[in-house]
Amino acid sequence: MQTSPSHGTYFMKINGTSFRSVWVDEKDLWSIHIFDQTRLPFSLDILRLTTVQDVAHAITSMQVRGAPLIGAVAAYGLALALRTDSSDTSLEQNAAMLAATRPTAINLRWALERMLNALRPIPPENRVSAAYTEAQHICDEDAAQNEAIGRHGLKLLQDIAGKKEKGQRLNILTHCNAGWIATVDWGTALAPIYMAHDLGLNVHVWVDETRPRNQGAALTAWELGSHGVPHTVITDNAGGHIMQHGQVDIVIVGTDRVTRNGDVANKIGTYLKALAAQDNKIPFWVALPSTTIDWRIADGIRDIPIEERAASEVTHVQGRMSDGKIGSVQITPDHSPAANPAFDVTPSRLVTGLITEKGCCPATENGLITLFPDHK
Question: Where in the sequence is the active site (predicted)?
Answer without folding.
Answer: 256
